[in-house]
Design a protein that fits this description.
The structure is a single chain. The chain is an alpha/beta fold. The chain has three domains: 76 residues, Phosphorylase Kinase, domain 1; 175 residues; 190 residues, Rossmann fold (3-Layer(aba) Sandwich), CATH 3.40.50.150. The chain is 38% helix and 19% strand. The strands form five sheets. A seven-stranded mixed sheet has the order 14-13-12-15-16-18-17, sandwiched between helices. It has a five-stranded antiparallel sheet with strand order 2-3-4-7-5. The longest helix is centred in the first third of the chain and has 20 residues.
Length: 474
């Protein structure tokens, strides 16, 4: 059987600036065609022990020289496919902090072999379930002893990791993730003025000059020696420029970046739902126990599950331990609640925590839509539809459309016939006339084949349905 691939059978990413390789997708395989001028460098990287060590330590995605052949490339490498691609704006604080340390650890190993990382933005890290790994093979570049301890990746690292982590540390909640979602929303200058508030009392002119000087020093230090020569080589003060670069190298090095990340190791951002599941114990709650039984008995052929509005993920862990489900994507739009999931499960290969508002999913124009990246045999939404319908005016059909787009087989949804009832039958909040069990049942049956409708508590009905073949996600 021939290993040669026609280029028309390959898919590529729409936007890529990788100088070393071209990234291709071939069916379920992830491959890179190495450009001619980098073949020897890549062979060195694959043979000198660097990639082996990075993979062994869990810092870099599993990578090997592929047997596949692509016209125009003398060397092809291949990566393990990460099942549920994710982006920085879908991570919690601790996930972003862990990703930052993965970059620094990866760079440290590369330094041992005469390489460094230079294109170190957060989108080059992906969580393989609860394990962050660096994935950009083209980010490795040979080090130059003339650069001393300066790090060419410092500026990207500062903007993509330190900036949002600093904002978390100062108590900002939505802004850190929005930096990755909306390019240019928060700038270098914004961060400079926030970190150095004294500069604002000097007036706009002087504060601008201080910022420009700070930026110029950071850029000069991180610039590679060869780039400095290209830009200033014929300048009469080139020697002074090179000396200044040498003097600055300790201020903008990888070790300095590690100290910066260490200084923002805690988030002070607050959120409404972060403590909602503090006192929950699924193993002692008849409701959770019954839903788990339903998964075991009615959904026997399911092995993966997406939990929407998972909060701290306690029920997700209970399901993993007490059912046939062996893989869960646990999501919530509350970043602090999601942080609990990650901290409880970091390093595990069976659960992926993601920040996800499933009725209003965020996405960048140049990233794959989240609804095209996530799917599972079961999609479960407990204790959430009443909030969406009664307090946020979200239509029930929209909710069912999203559930249908995420599931391969089944949906598990709770309906609260008493709406926002909080335990006192004498003070039930008023609910609209349309909002009743008959209405919910009719709409559920219009979208799914009903398997089960069972009352769990006075204000809880669990509905279990199977997605129709015409609507099924493959």
């Amino acid at each position: 059987m021939s290993n040669k691939i026609n280029k028309e059978d390959l898919q590529t990413v729409e936007f890529s600036i990788d100088q070393v390789c071209t990234l291709y997708f071939y069916g379920d395989r992830v491959i890179r065609g190495v450009h001619d001028q980098y073949v020897e460098q890549v062979k060195e990287m694959m043979s000198n022990g660097m990639i082996d060590e990075l993979v062994e330590k869990g810092l870099f995605v599993q990578t090997w020289i592929s047997e596949l052949e692509i016209e125009g490339h003398d060397l092809v490498i291949e990566h393990k496919k990460i099942p549920y691609w994710n982006y920085p704006y879908e991570w919690s604080f601790s996930m972003l902090h862990a990703a930052a340390n993965i970059v620094l650890d990866c760079n440290e190993v590369a330094n041992k072999y005469g390489f460094e990382l230079f294109d170190v933005h957060a989108f080059n890290v992906v969580f393989d379930m609860s394990k962050p790994v660096y994935v950009d093979f083209g980010s490795f570049i040979k080090t130059d002893e003339r650069d001393g301890s300066s790090w060419s990746g410092y500026n990207n690292f500062y903007n993509s990791f330190y900036m949002p982590l600093y904002l978390y540390n100062r108590g900002y909640s939505d802004l850190p993730n929005s930096i990755h979602l909306y390019n240019g929303l928060f700038s270098d200058k914004d961060l400079f003025l926030l970190r150095h508030k004294y500069s604002t009392i000097l007036g706009s002119y002087l504060s601008n000059q201080l910022f420009k000087a700070h930026t110029a020093m950071r850029r000069l230090s991180a610039a590679r020696y060869t780039r400095v020569i290209e830009k200033y080589g014929k300048h009469q003060r080139i020697n002074q420029v090179l000396q200044l670069k040498k003097n600055l190298q300790g201020f903008y090095s990888a070790s300095k970046a590690r100290k910066l990340i260490g200084s923002v190791s805690k988030s002070k951002a607050d959120s409404y739902w972060k403590d909602y599941h503090n006192d929950k114990n699924p193993g002692q709650d008849p409701r959770f126990i019954r839903i788990n039984e339903i998964i075991n008995t009615e959904l026997k052929d399911a092995s993966s599950l997406i939990e929407l509005a998972s909060n701290q993920g306690k029920f997700a862990n209970f399901i993993l331990e007490n059912s046939q489900i062996d893989e869960i994507i646990a999501t919530d739009y509350d970043r602090n609640a999601l942080d609990h999931i990650y901290l409880r499960n970091q390093g595990r290969s069976d659960i992926l925590p993601l920040v996800f508002d499933f009725v209003r999913p965020n996405n960048r124009s140049n990233t794959t839509n989240v609804l095209d990246r996530l799917n599972a045999d079961v999609v479960m939404a407990l204790a959430v539809t009443h909030h969406l319908i009664l307090t946020q005016d979200v239509g029930l059909q929209h909710i069912f459309n999203v559930l249908s787009s995420l599931t391969k087989k089944y949906v598990v949804v709770e309906f609260m016939p008493l709406g926002l009832y909080s335990g006192d039958l004498n003070t039930i909040p008023e609910i609209p006339d349309f909002y009743n069990l008959e209405w919910f049942t009719k709409n559920f049956k219009n979208n799914f084949d009903l398997i089960l409708d069972e009352q769990l508590e006075v204000n809880r009905h669990v509905f279990v349905g199977q997605v129709r073949t015409s609507n099924r996600v493959e």
